[in-house]
Automatic annotation (TrEMBL):
<feature type="domain" description="Scaffold protein Nfu/NifU N-terminal">
    <location>
        <begin position="6"/>
        <end position="94"/>
    </location>
</feature>
<dbReference type="InterPro" id="IPR001075">
    <property type="entry name" value="NIF_FeS_clus_asmbl_NifU_C"/>
</dbReference>
<dbReference type="GO" id="GO:0005506">
    <property type="term" value="F:iron ion binding"/>
</dbReference>
<dbReference type="GO" id="GO:0051536">
    <property type="term" value="F:iron-sulfur cluster binding"/>
</dbReference>
<dbReference type="InterPro" id="IPR035433">
    <property type="entry name" value="NFU1-like"/>
</dbReference>
<dbReference type="GO" id="GO:0016226">
    <property type="term" value="P:iron-sulfur cluster assembly"/>
</dbReference>
<dbReference type="Pfam" id="PF08712">
    <property type="entry name" value="Nfu_N"/>
</dbReference>
<dbReference type="InterPro" id="IPR014824">
    <property type="entry name" value="Nfu/NifU_N"/>
</dbReference>
<comment type="similarity">
    <text>Belongs to the NifU family.</text>
</comment>
<protein>
    <submittedName>
        <fullName>Thioredoxin</fullName>
    </submittedName>
</protein>
<dbReference type="InterPro" id="IPR036498">
    <property type="entry name" value="Nfu/NifU_N_sf"/>
</dbReference>
<dbReference type="Pfam" id="PF01106">
    <property type="entry name" value="NifU"/>
</dbReference>
<dbReference type="InterPro" id="IPR034904">
    <property type="entry name" value="FSCA_dom_sf"/>
</dbReference>
Length: 200
């Protein structure tokens, strides 16, 4: 295994830090968000991170891990070296990131929740998914988080905010002024965007 280099990058959420690797953990477009240890059953890496008593949430994407701390009084300057060293050692040693490929897992989950939308709703939903994937997700990933499409019904788009976006003070503003405006402009049928995963 070649040497792994990792750098820490601040996110708009002061409680979240993005650790960027020079190697891939997941295929592009797939990400996983673990709000607690119980949710992380599929990821030995995330389970190990929850072993640090100040880790409150773990988000894993293509080439980065976003860690959200549960103890606001602890400064990142103390925590970054420890987390960076742990991630570097773990990945260099070839530690398992996942037990089951999250891409397959997510496809199955999406198929299960998609239900049976009308043909028109299905077309609108596809337009929304394309816009989120092409315009919104890359920007959100820059900030150490992710946005996923959940459903479209009667003009209302429901999305999931993950990683640093969950609990971020500016998430609601971004959602309403940025994402909702974009979708309304590009897909006239969209009336509003609501999010799951915002914890304030």
């Amino acid at each position: 295994m070649s040497a792994v280099s990792i750098y820490a990058e601040a996110s708009p959420n002061p409680e979240s830090m993005k650790f960027v690797l020079n190697s891939n953990l997941l295929v592009d477009g797939v990400s996983v968000d673990y709000p607690n240890l119980e949710a992380a059953a599929n990821s030995p890496l995330a389970q190990e991170l929850f072993g640090f008593d100040y880790v409150g949430r773990v988000f894993i994407a293509q080439n980065f891990v976003t860690v959200t701390k549960s103890q606001p009084e602890m400064a990142w300057t103390q925590l970054i070296p420890e987390l960076r060293q742990f991630l570097k050692s773990y990945v260099e040693a070839g530690g398992p990131i996942f037990l089951v490929d999250p891409a397959a897992e997510q496809k199955a989950a999406q198929a299960a929740t998609a239900g049976d939308p009308t043909q028109q709703d299905g077309q609108i939903a596809q337009k929304v998914i394309d816009l989120l994937d092409n315009y919104v997700r890359p920007a959100v990933e820059q900030d150490g988080g992710n946005i996923t499409f959940k459903s479209y019904h009667e003009g209302i788009v429901t999305v999931n905010l993950q990683g640093s976006c969950s609990g971020c003070p500016s998430a609601t503003v971004t959602l309403k002024s940025g994402i909702e405006n974009l979708l309304k402009r590009m897909v006239p049928e969209v009336q509003s965007v609501v999010a799951e995963g915002i914890t304030v």
